[in-house]
Amino acid sequence: MLRRLALKDFVIVPALELDFAAGFSALTGETGAGKSILIDALQLALGSRGDAAVVREGAPRAEIAAEFDRPAALAPWLEEAGFEASSDGAADTLLLRRVIDAQGKSRAWINGGTATVAQLRELAEHLLDIHGQHAWQGLTRPASVRELLDGFALIDTKPLAAAFSDWRQATETLSAARAKQSDLAREHERLSWQIGEVDRLAPGADEWDELNAEHQRLSHAQSLMDAARGALERVAEAEINAESLTDEALSALQDVLGYDAGLQDTVNALLGAQAQLQDAAHSLSSYLNAADLDPDRLQQLDDRLSAWVTLSRRYRRQPAELPALLAEWKAELAQLDAAADLEGLQAKQATALKAFQKEARTVSTARAKAAPALSNAVSQAMQQLGMSGGRFEVALLPQDEPQSFGLESAEFLVAGHAGSTPRPLGKVASGGELSRIALAIAVTTSQKNAGAGTLIFDEIDAGVGGAVAETVGRLMKQLGRRAQVLAVTHLPQVAACADHHFLVAKALKDGKTNSDVRPISGEARTAEIARMLGGERLSSTSLAHAQEMLELSAKAASGDAPSTLAPPSSSKKVKP
Q1: Helix (H) and strand (E) counts for the chain?
Q2: Nearest to 442 by CA among 38, 126, 129
Q3: CA atoms of 545 and 543, how far apart (whole Å)
Q4: Which residue from 423, 436, 434 is spatially nearest to 382, judged by alpha carbons?
């Protein structure tokens, strides 16, 4: 449920803060006062497209903040997306904020955390359900009709869409394999030959670096042996060598160490050097014993390196890349083998089709059950909305081919009068009838599908008047007992039924037009109902009629009065 809405520098609203309550709230005002601005602001707060045109002239940015009761189902979504449970510590609130600057750049927040517009849109379906005055136009589009029916039937179509996607992918893979069998054979032969050639070399993952290191060592073996032998002589084997000189230095110091203990550190250092020289002499000796010129091994290395280089040039890769290239080709060959396995691909396609058909039959059964229920419910609502004898039908149209939405499409048919045959909605209904039918559908489906906690009707009662307007008001009030309802209306009969009334007015200040919204009650509300009945010049008659409508509405809500909200028969009925 919407709790609060705050606007700053939005279109012609300098600043505004409104608190909302449960039940049915009506928004009224003169034409052009900006009644739909609140709806536009809510849509922006929930991710609709915005640009610099929404920024009040002369202001740097427009700001919108909307606070809702948080549906319990959203808690896992908020946690997964990294948003706090609430911006103010209350676990049951959800605060959405949107800022659009004068350059059209937009930023958004959810409970104080930075959000994307896509995330706002994802929240919208859980919070708001908006029905506009041209809602009937969507009722002529198959996708919109199907979504309404599925929502009424509480059908989750995601498994169906996923199954269709799997089947289509399997079908496309099979078709591509069939079309490319000759190309696949040639590519298979090419890859097999290349793999065979490189496989004969059998390049190891780190072999190239190891071969180069060994080749460098063998090709410089003589120089290495000469250097090692010279070092060994200087360390230990020459007549004058490092070991013997170190021994002499130690003997000289140890003879006088008793006279000055300060020489002990130097003696220790020479002892360490003597040990290291002995280790070095041992290592050099071992190296010389193991060293071998081995011209045969050197030739083998030359041949192996040459084979690596030849293949790397042929396939225009660095030698070290050959092992990865071989693995890549083998993976491609495996894919070709799978693509060439027509029987396997056909089996996968058949399995995917079977899974899709199972999901589709489940959805079809649910739609077939829901269609008559929706038809009857809307037909009953039409009788209350001045279309006595009218009949509404939901027609399910089988599809020639499987579709992502299932095995059938849906269409709304209507007969405006008794005895006439239902025909497609857009072809038989007038503008006023279309608005009433759209209202009947909106009320019916909203009662069934409680996914959104707030329902908004934006002048959906356009073209309606008289006794039908009374029914619209009663329907709105009745719906307000199950969900929060906000309605922008020109009809006094509808406004009189509201639990809460907001007046939208505009005024000229400092050369600029400003719009303001405020809750009204008592005499102010009576005056507004009177204005809606008889125009700007309020008379005692129009005020009396307005007061009577409000009293009758209150009594009807408590069950103490007839349901009619019309003025006395002696008064002149004024169409809104």
Answers
A1: 19, 15
A2: 129
A3: 5
A4: 436
